[in-house]
Write a structure and sequence with these properties.
The protein is α/β, with parallel strands linked by helices. It has helices at 41-49, 66-84, 98-111, 114-117, 180-183, 200-203, 213-222, 238-249, and strands at 3-8, 21-25, 31-34, 56-60, 92-96, 124-128, 134-136, 141-146, 155-160, 166-169, 188-192, 227-231, 256-258, 265-267. It comes from Selenomonas caprae.
Length: 269
C-alpha cells in the first residue's frame, strides 16, 4: 500500500504547525521525501513518523524559499552523519533546479562539518533537473516541471507509476497552464490553498501569489483530478481547518478531498 505521510501543512510563517513537506512510503518500503521545512524541526517530524533514513535514497526540493530549503541542510547533515558512522549504505540523491542546487552546495559548504560536507558530491548527490526532464527511479518515473513562479524559480513534479497511478505535486503557488499535461487527470493532485475564500480579505492570498480553497478546488475539477490534497495554509484555524476547508472544496470539486493535519497519513491505494 502506498502512503502519503504529511510532515507539515503550514505556510512559511506558521508557528502552530510545521512548514509544508511530506514523504511517500512505497510498496517496497522505500521512502521519497519532498522538501523539508524551515529548520531542524524536520528531524523531529521525521522521528515521530518512524522515518528510516536508510530507506530514503531520493528526495525532491521544489524551491529555495526558507520554509522549504533550510530543513534540507539538516537532512543532509543527518544522512552524512549516518554515512560517517557506517549506518547508511549507498548514495542519497537530491533532485532540484539549478538555483536550489547552487544554494544547497553553498550552504552545506558554509555550515556543515568538514567530514560531513566531504560526503556532498560523492555519496550525497545534488542533481539539477530541467523543465520537462524525466528521471527514471526504481519505483516510478519522475518528471519535473517549472511552475513559472513570479516570485522565485520553483518546480513541481509528476510521478508516473508502472500501474498507471499519476501523482502530481504543484508546489506552493497557483497552477500554471504550462503544466497541464503533468496535472490533468491526476489520480492525486497536491495543491496549495492558503485560506478559505471568505477569509481572502483577512489573509490576502493573492498578494502572496497563493490560492484560496475555492480556486484550488475549481482547478482540480477543471483538471479532472480524482483526489485532491490541500495544504500550505494559514495557521489560525487549525482546530476547524479540516472540516471547513473540505466543506468549501466540495462546493466546487466532485472528487475526494483531503485536508491533512501535520503527521496525517493518507493511503494512496
Amino acid at each position: 500500500m502506498r502512503k502519503l505521510v504529511i510532515l507539515g501543512t503550514g505556510f512559511a510563517m506558521a508557528t502552530k504547525c510545521f512548514n509544508t513537506c511530506f514523504f511517500l512510503e512505497l510498496e517496497d518500503g522505500s521512502l521519497f521525501l519532498t522538501d523539508a521545512g524551515g529548520g531542524n524541526g524536520i528531524l523531529r517530524q521525521l522521528e515521530v513518523t518512524g522515518f528510516d533514513y536508510q530507506k530514503c535514497q531520493h528526495m525532491f526540493v521544489t524551491h529555495g524559499h526558507t520554509d522549504h530549503v533550510l530543513g534540507v541542510i539538516w537532512v543532509i547533515r543527518k544522512v552524512a552523519d549516518l554515512m560517517n558512522k557506517g549506518k547508511y549504505e549507498g548514495q542519497f540523491h537530491i533532485y532540484c533546479h539549478d538555483v536550489v542546487r547552487e544554494m544547497l552546495l553553498k550552504m552545506t559548504e558554509m555550515t556543515l562539518k568538514k567530514k560531513d560536507f566531504a560526503r556532498v558530491g560523492s555519496d550525497i548527490l545534488i542533481h539539477e533537473v530541467k523543465d520537462g526532464e524525466a528521471v527514471e527511479l526504481p519505483q516510478f518515473r519522475l518528471t519535473a516541471f517549472d511552475i513559472l513562479s513570479t516570485k522565485a524559480k520553483q518546480f513541481g513534479y509528476c510521478l508516473q507509476f508502472a500501474d498507471g497511478m499519476k501523482f502530481t505535486c504543484l508546489g506552493d503557488e497557483p497552477y500554471n497552464e504550462h503544466d497541464r499535461a503533468y496535472a490533468e487527470q491526476a489520480d492525486w493532485l497536491l495543491a496549495e490553498a492558503f485560506c478559505q475564500y471568505k477569509d481572502r480579505e483577512v489573509f490576502k492570498p493573492y498578494e502572496k501569489n497563493h490560492s484560496t480553497v475555492k480556486e484550488a478546488s475549481e482547478l482540480a475539477e477543471l483538471l479532472r483530478a480524482k483526489n485532491l490534497v490541500l495544504y500550505h495554509t494559514e495557521d489560525k484555524h487549525l482546530a476547524t481547518r479540516k472540516q471547513e476547508y473540505a466543506a468549501e472544496a466540495r462546493q466546487y470539486y466532485q472528487g475526494n478531498v483531503f485536508v491533512p493535519d501535520d503527521l496525517d497519513v493518507i493511503e494512496l491505494g
